[in-house]
Design goal:
Elements: H1 20-24, E1 33-41, E2 62-71, H2 76-90, E3 98-103, H3 115-121, E4 130-133, H4 135-138, E5 139-141, E6 146-157, H5 161-166, E7 180-193, E8 199-212, H6 213-220, H7 233-243, H8 251-272, H9 281-300, H10 312-319, H11 324-328, H12 330-361, E9 367-368, H13 370-380, H14 384-393, E10 397-398, H15 400-418, E11 420-422, E12 426-427, E13 435-436, E14 443-456, E15 459-466, E16 468-469, E17 483-486, E18 491-500, E19 503-508, E20 518-523, H16 525-549, E21 555-560, E22 565-570, H17 577-592, E23 598-604, H18 605-610, E24 624-630, E25 633-636, E26 651-660, E27 663-670, H19 671-691, H20 698-732, E28 736-738, E29 741-747, H21 752-763, E30 769-777, E31 780-787, H22 789-795, H23 799-806, E32 812-816, E33 820-825, H24 831-837
Parallel strand pairs: 3-4, 9-10, 13-16, 29-30
Antiparallel strand pairs: 1-2, 2-8, 3-6, 5-6, 6-7, 7-8, 11-14, 12-14, 14-15, 14-20, 15-19, 17-18, 17-20, 18-19, 21-22, 22-27, 23-24, 24-25, 26-27, 28-29, 30-31, 31-33, 32-33
């Protein structure tokens, strides 16, 4: 479900994604016919089902797409015949419940009706049940460009007979009726959409069949909702048991249970496939889905503690037999989800406090400012629909117009940052693949076989594909090579190398004057060597981690570049200093062994496992794999590596920490970077010795200074306390009686801590006290407000509300309790105005 090596997708959102290269002709199809079940996720972009999930009966985030495929083999005649046979003869679905659609043509695209499909369908079904569909419903396209073609759908009408008598099913096809639904789609892929909008026939015609597993279950089990099938009922039953809320009694709680059951499946399978929740890209999508479920549990099921992680075992017991990754990663999945739930529940709690503070500060407003609502959403991750819900409960509303403006501004910024437009490929020489030379050389004579222009963030770049290449494309966590492309007349810089749809794509800032020429492609060897050092060190580090911490350690992600290496691994507690030191020492001992590279480039997975190879987390392996061995370290890996471990020189761990529940991250440097680190540390220590005038025992000298400093702090604090007591006595004599309230508003020469001591000291000896103290320190202003308990009870005064209003004069903000509150600001010149304004609260 998590897509690798395709920049156009984060997740598989359709059954055909995995076969895209076969359709495009980037690589030959391994088989002419395939039947499969594909895990899919639809939450954003063109294929976005998220907002419908839980509210209707058949939309989901994660679903299984059943498919059968023809790659240049059978076409419409067989696909239609077999679809009808399977549904009506094998699955025994009543033929009178079925309708079919064909593409009715499109004048704007100059595309005729699919009469071929029409004539085939007439053999199986009455013509009045064959409906002509629009381009929107019956012409399938992967995106703005790429493979496409007409499609023929099969719809099933599962309504009761009474409902069917009211309106014919053919009137409800493709009209979002929950019980007249598409169950099967035959896509006849015969065109390639160009960037200019034109259609070019594909060299070979293909068939892409899609049938939603969950919808099929609904039909075969005689249900009216996917959520009533045994795909979902065990999860919903467990949710009802934990929350003690009966399913089927209340619309809002029913929707919440369906949302949670659906979203749990999406999040669980994503984590099992290697995608952890995070704040960027695919990780953010998973976090968003998970938090949406938590919000529903919080709002509609009254859950104030983690719920979803308790459901993972139910899902694993349902599907673990067929998807063993669930069983294998069960503990990890539960821990990650529990941690995410706990974290977001804290966010919700924080957001509710801020919401209540806003209400208290604007008691007569009755409308939540859109900018504040957006700040809650954008800065604190507080869902806007929850802000709306809480507002409605108080009889307030949210200024959604202003919120929408802010949200659209943010989206426009994101679009500008993320938009990438691509031209069509200019093919110079037809070639299905590039000869990969990167393991053996950093220089080769090449020819450009195709190129195209792309525009990203307003900058034009060019993607070049060669007939052969010494460049390594970014994959498996390793960054892509950079270098140059030289002909007799010019030299171009290759700024990156990536893998796109199985093509090795070289990124250049300009296009050669003569793309047909022969070129010398040269990798930046210094950068390649540094990257290889870090990649091989990652293998040695992985080996040491498993030896020191245990074999439960598995790689959960990595990044390898020329500057440093990053390694994510499963482990459920912080590493001690001793463990880190032992791991680093063992890794460097492996470096010093100077084991030569033992490489096996094309062995079967069975052979690789027999050699003791470890597969890296989340990676996709083909029929043949590459094994990298350094002594006892054996891993499957497609990256570039050192010829012997001694080349790495030195490995230095620079950080270790948690990135998710049960997932730790180590960052390390090697070779020249590690040397630089050591030299820098030596220089720091030498400077420290000189500073403390102790060349032999600098730590002891520093400790003495810290002890002396602590002693001096105690003396200063005692002095300030004595000073505050004297100042308190002076201020008591200045208190005046205003409208029956003892009032003082004055500037003092004391810090915030002393101001608090003074205020509480005065409260102990003066009743009905309203006190405002202002002070200035290092160019910043501070206000302290105290209101006695008598005034809170009799006058309804609130120090928190008062200090927020006064803080406007010093261009700041603050808050606190009704009895005592503080504020800080950047404008000390406004202190006098704030102190003067204080009197207005009692006059």
């Amino acid at each position: 479900m998590v897509v690798k090596n395709d920049p156009t997708l984060m997740f598989t959102n359709a059954g055909m994604n995995q076969f895209k290269d076969w359709f495009l002709g980037n690589e030959p199809a391994k088989w002419p016919r395939v039947a499969d079940s594909q895990k899919c996720l639809r939450v954003s972009g063109k294929h976005n089902d998220l907002e419908e999930v839980g509210h209707d009966t058949y939309h989901h985030t994660m679903f299984e797409m059943l498919g059968n495929w023809s790659f240049g083999d059978y076409f419409k005649e067989e696909a239609i015949g077999w679809a009808w046979e399977l549904l009506t003869e094998v699955y025994k679905i009543d033929k009178d419940k079925l309708y079919v659609t064909i593409f009715g043509g499109d004048k704007a695209d100059n595309m005729p009706e699919d009469t071929e499909a029409l004539e085939i369908w007439k053999k199986y079904i009455a013509e009045d049940r064959i409906l002509r569909g629009s381009k929107k419903d019956n012409f399938w396209e992967m995106g703005d460009t790429g493979p496409c073609g007409p499609c023929s759908e099969i719809h099933v009408d599962i309504r009761d007979e009474a409902e069917k008598a009211k309106i014919s099913g053919d009137k409800l096809v493709n009209n979002d009726h929950p019980q007249v639904i598409e169950i099967w789609n035959n896509v006849f892929i015969q065109y390639n959409r160009q960037a200019n909008g034109s259609l070019v026939p594909l060299p070979a015609k293909h068939v892409d069949t899609g049938m939603g597993f969950e919808r099929l279950c609904m039909v075969l089990q005689g249900k009216k909702s996917n959520y009533d099938t045994d795909v979902f009922t065990p999860l919903i039953a467990q949710i009802a048991k934990i929350t003690e809320i009966e399913y089927g009694k209340d619309y809002k709680s029913d929707v919440a249970m369906r949302v949670i059951a659906d979203h749990l499946r999406a999040v669980t399978f994503a984590i099992a496939d290697g995608q952890l929740p995070s704040n960027v890209k695919a990780g953010y999508v998973i976090r968003r889905i998970l938090r949406r479920a938590v919000r529903y549990a919080y709002s509609f099921l009254n859950m104030r503690e983690p719920l979803m992680f308790k459901l993972v075992k139910v899902l694993e017991s349902q599907m673990g037999e067929f998807f063993p990754e669930l069983t294998r990663n069960l503990d990890l999945i539960q821990r990650v989800i529990a941690e995410e739930e706990t974290s977001f529940l804290r966010t919700l709690a924080t957001g509710i406090v801020k919401f209540n503070q806003y209400i208290a500060a604007h008691p007569d407003q009755r409308v939540i400012n859109g900018e504040f609502a957006f700040e809650m959403y954008d800065t604190f991750g507080f869902p806007i629909d929850l802000t709306q819900l809480m507002s409605r409960e108080l009889g307030w509303e949210v200024d959604m117009d202003n919120f929408s403006i802010k949200l659209e501004e943010q989206k426009n910024r994101s679009r500008r940052d993320a938009t990438v437009s691509t031209d069509d490929w200019h093919v110079i020489e037809a070639s299905e693949s590039t000869e990969f030379l990167a393991y053996d050389t950093t220089e080769a004579e090449v020819k450009i076989t195709r190129y195209r222009k792309i525009t990203t963030k307003g900058k034009d770049l060019y993607q070049l594909v060669f007939d052969r290449t010494p460049f390594y494309a970014e994959s498996g966590g390793q960054s892509g090579d950079t270098g140059s492309l030289a002909s007799a007349n010019e030299i171009l810089q290759i700024v990156d190398t990536r893998k796109e749809n199985n093509l090795i794509v070289h990124i250049a800032e300009s296009l050669p004057e003569n793309p047909d020429a022969r070129f010398m492609a040269t990798v930046n060897s210094e950068r390649r060597t540094a990257t290889a050092n870090n990649h091989s060190a990652t293998h040695l580090l992985h080996y040491a981690l498993r030896k020191v911490l245990g074999t439960h350690v598995e790689q959960k992600g990595s990044f390898v570049g020329p500057e440093y290496l990053r390694f994510d691994f499963s482990h459920f507690q912080k590493l001690t200093d001793e463990e880190l030191l032992t791991i680093e020492k063992m890794t460097n001992a492996l470096v010093r062994e100077n084991n030569p590279l033992d490489e096996h480039r094309a062995v079967s997975m069975e052979q690789a496992v027999g050699m003791g190879a470890l597969a890296f987390f989340g990676e996709k392996y083909g029929d043949k794999v590459r094994v990298i061995r350094y002594g006892s370290s054996v891993e499957l890996c497609g990256g570039t590596h050192v010829q012997s471990t001694g080349q790495i020189g030195l490995v230095k761990i620079v950080s270790e920490g948690a990135i998710a529940s049960g997932i730790r991250r180590i960052e390390a440097i090697t070779a020249a970077k590690a040397e630089e680190y050591v030299y820098t540390q030596e220089s720091l220590i030498a400077g420290l010795k000189q500073l403390v005038k102790s060349p032999t025992e600098p730590l002891k000298a520093v400790q003495q200074l810290l002890d002396q400093n602590a002693e001096m702090r105690k003396l200063v604090e005692a002095f300030n306390h004595e000073k505050a007591l004297k100042l308190k006595d002076e201020l008591v004599s200045k208190v005046e009686l205003v409208n029956g309230i003892n009032f003082l508003s004055v500037r003092i020469n004391a810090d915030a801590s002393a101001a608090k001591d003074i205020a509480f000291g005065m409260r102990a000896v003066i009743e009905n006290l309203f006190l405002v103290l202002g002070s200035e320190s290092e160019g910043k202003a501070t206000l302290s407000v105290l209101v006695s308990d008598e005034l809170i009870a009799s006058k309804g005064m609130n120090a928190g509300n008062i200090v927020r209003e006064l803080a406007k004069s010093i261009q700041g903000g603050g808050g606190g309790q009704p009895g005592f509150a503080t504020a800080g600001g950047k404008n000390p010149q406004g202190l006098d105005e704030a102190l003067k304004q204080a009197r207005s609260f009692i006059s």
